[in-house]
Write a structure and sequence with these properties.
single chain; 171 residues; mainly alpha; 75% helix; DUF3486 family protein; Phage_Mu_Gp27
Length: 171
């Protein structure tokens, strides 16, 4: 089993402080950061800080890139039916599966937090499907009203309107 890094052993407050310092310093100045850590009572080497900083920066860069790509996708293809959310939920589900698998091997991730994330994701999925169904129902109702309001304009017969209703699933 790999050794737990010094940074991973930090309490939440110190870890949050360290993350903010790394970002504020542009992921540089590790010797000075080591001195600041010592002043805070954190015994950690500049090399450990650098290793952690590199990984943290890579993850931060990935999140930024994914965010920018998501914005571009939404701008190019508006998501009226929630397809992007559904795809995102599937990606998160896959990631959680990987985390669970890895946690069983390493034993260093609390499964109660993963279970909560899975439950939250399930609720989000159900809510999204409910909203999509309500949106579809509303759209069909609007189409029915427009079709009914059409009357016999333009030579549209009642048989034609009935065929349109059947094709759209409007009753």
């Amino acid at each position: 089993m790999p050794q737990v890094s010094e940074v991973q052993r930090l309490n939440t407050d110190d870890k949050d402080w360290l993350d903010k310092e790394l970002v504020a310093r542009g992921f540089s100045g590790y010797d000075e950061l080591e001195n600041l850590c010592h002043k805070r009572g954190i015994d950690i080497s500049s090399s450990s800080l650098h290793r952690y900083g590199q990984t943290f920066r890579e993850r931060l860069d990935q999140v930024k890139m994914i965010t920018e790509q998501a914005r571009a996708v939404v701008a190019e293809a508006p998501d009226d039916e929630g397809a992007i959310n559904e795809a995102l939920m599937r990606l998160v589900q896959e990631k959680l599966f990987t985390v669970i698998r890895d946690a069983q091997i390493s034993g260093d991730i609390p499964l109660d937090k993963i279970a909560k994330a899975i439950a939250d994701l399930g609720r989000a999925s159900v809510s999204q499907k409910r909203l999509a169904a309500e949106a579809r129902k509303q759209l069909l109702q609007e189409q029915r009203q427009k079709l009914d309001a059409l009357g016999d304009k333009g030579g549209v017969t009642e048989d034609t309107k009935q065929a349109i209703r059947e094709a759209l699933g409007i009753e």
